[in-house]
Amino acid sequence: MTIEWIDKTEKQKKYRPMCLEDINFNIVRLLCLNGVVKEPAFIIGQKITEHLAHNWGGRDVYIPRKHVQPDETHLGLMGSKNSGILFLEDINIQIIDYLYLATIDKATAISIAQQITRKLTILFNGEKLFIPMMWHESIAKRRSMIYEEFQGGNGDMVQLGIKYNISTRSVYRIIKEERIRIKEDAKKRVTNHKM
Prior knowledge:
Blueprint: H1 2-14, H2 19-33, H3 38-56, E1 59-62, H4 83-101, H5 106-123, E2 128-131, H6 136-151, H7 157-164, H8 168-194
Antiparallel strand pairs: 1-2
């Protein structure tokens, strides 16, 4: 038991913490540096980060030391070091798509996307990232949805756990924490209203 705990702790130290926040920040920053207005840059960064959490969540991604274009040999090799190449290519495609939707011409969108993926390669040079299943904004939304469904009469914790892919114990904890948060918010409103 103790050996497994030590191994798990050592494994966790190898991962870069807060990688989705770092990726989001750098995408927004680099979009702004390339002339994209701040508000659309934030929206694009958030959409891409949510996409990464949804499609890559729960996986290890090894970012290569050099920017490499993916080819047929990289496809389908998700558990290997090639996953980082596919991860960066996914970011590249998402940036191009969102910039194109924001009425930026295709050639400029491709150029900006390639610059950003090169910068991300330099930033995460040879690191192993663990992509969480959900991003912090998505987690808050999920927590409130679970609480609302529980309060709305769909109170079977087992079914909520299955629906949201979490344990029954986590559902119980979320409901308890949401109740406390709602009570504290109500107290703050009453206190602020009296002043």
